[in-house]
Design brief:
The chain is an all-alpha fold and 46 residues long. It is built from two helices and no strands. Helices cover 61% and strands 0% of the residues.
């Protein structure tokens, strides 16, 4: 049995790190869109 090859984790790109900086903007905007969508559905169904 041989040891697995050593991996350098410092060069790996984490996909979460790419989008986490946008969360303070994206979450409130998506919340507002969801509220308007639900309000539109409620008015349309009434």
């Amino acid at each position: 049995m041989s040891a697995p090859p050593a991996q350098d984790h410092s060069t790996e790109k984490d996909p979460v790190e790419d989008i986490v900086h946008a969360m303070p903007v994206v979450l409130p905007v998506m919340g507002a869109v969801l509220m308007f969508l639900l309000a539109f559905i409620a008015v349309f169904m009434a």
